[in-house]
Amino acid sequence: MSTKKAAALVVRTSDWSESSRIATIWTREFGRVRVLAKGARRLKSSFDVALDLLTVCSVVFIHKATSGLDLLTEARVEERFPKLLTDLPALYGGYYVAELLSELTQDMDPHPMLYDAALVTLRELGGLGPLTGQRVMAFELTLLAELGYSPALRHCAGCGTPTLPPLAFSAIAGGLVCDNCRVRQSDARPMKLELRDALDALRLDPTGWRVERPAPLRKELRQLLGQYVGVRLGRRPRVLPYLTD
After folding, report:
1. Distances from the Cα of 126 to the Cα of 86, 131, 157, 243, angstroms
2. Which distant-in-sequence residues (6+ apart) come within 8 Å of 42 by Cβ?
3. Which fold has domain 82-242?
4. Helix H or strand E segment including 56
5. Mean pLDDT by 10 residues, the chain (245 residues)
């Protein structure tokens, strides 16, 4: 066993006993970590509100070499995101960020850039109106790229050949598919050039989400990305139905 210190975002919690809680924290130094916080449910607990969902903390935990929960010994609040509490679509967007970090990543697999991107996203959410959905989608694409799941948008995900209109997209295959590969993918669907270009802009341009797109296009983007993430996750994300386009 060894003692670790890290910056962490709380992405999931559950009760363990009458006095303790289990938390999934996403750390900059170690990636996803599952910890047992003994006494966290007691009044005047030393953890206080540090284990509230979407709270940024500095933590100390004892890491076990074998499988199982690590032991959280310290958690001090460093940052919260008050704008989320006054904007319901933004709050659901924050919950979605937490779900993706909790469910789509692996234990002790650090991605410092992804941790930083999550915090920037949470800071920017709130008061964005129709841009809220696009901000969340930009984070999704950042996460997918960092984990090696970025959709193929310029070549066939099946055989690697360049793709030409008319385009078809398959979440199962991992992106655009050519005519030959399309027949082997039951989920392949037509994809407009406008949709492909908007998705590419969100993926490649850090400020691409700030360009407000028509509502029908935002809806198509939300449906396509939701399906794509669901395939990678192996189920439909729980928060997905509550997200705005």
Report:
1. 7, 10, 35, 13
2. 19
3. de novo design (two linked rop proteins) (1.20.1440)
4. strand 56-63
5. 94 86 95 89 73 96 85 94 96 98 96 98 96 97 97 96 95 97 95 96 93 96 97 97 94
